[in-house]
Amino acid sequence: MTDTEPSAGGAPRAPRRRFRVLRWILGGLGALVALAVVGILIYSQVGVMGAEPDPLAEARANPGMTITEDGAGVVLSPTDGDTGRGLVFIPGAKVDALGYVATFADTVVDDGVTVVITRPWLNLAFFDPRPLSTFTDLAPAVESWAVGGHSLGGVRACQLASDADALVLFASYCATDLTASGLPVLSLSGSEDGLSTPQKIADAATELPSDAVFVEIPGASHASFGAYGPQAGDGTPTIDRAEVDRIIADELDTFLPAP
Length: 259
Hints:
alpha/beta; 8-stranded mixed beta sheet
């Protein structure tokens, strides 16, 4: 006996064994894909770094800033003195959006800038395909928008930069060639950053326009750009976080384009 059946014309059909093998292969691939999806889901939800309670509470109590939470992001609006300037800010990998509220309090209150902190899908910016307009629509009164991000969020910001008026990198760098974009770019980094190290920032500078502005904050670490606690693999900061926030605000106020 054989593992074939005759066709209507008398010629043998393809062996059943081939179909069984194909089903096993497809089933195995499907199982691998399912495991990968489950693994990503678990990874994205475990170890998420939340906001430090005290800085967040202080920011919430600031009468000069209105905080509006939306499924797409957290909007920080100046109570008075709105300048029409805005920043869409993308968090680093597995850092809660609220972990950056305190960072931008000076920028919002003192300089009249609206900041939209996004909430990336799966807490990872690379898995968030939404366009910049998803976030700028949360603050329709803003006339001039910069896009920026911290760490992995900055890499994603580079991909959205063509739809913005400016780009700001916070302890981050681009994997996208923007040399011919003509876009104003500000790179803020820390001398004690153990993740986006000064060397990595320098090495990736060739992806940016030649007139990009680089500001290294002495004593700042990777986690100094947020208020979510220490981060594994980072350096040790030698500067107070409030001072970093003040420097960030001053640099943004000088850099962000007017409407």
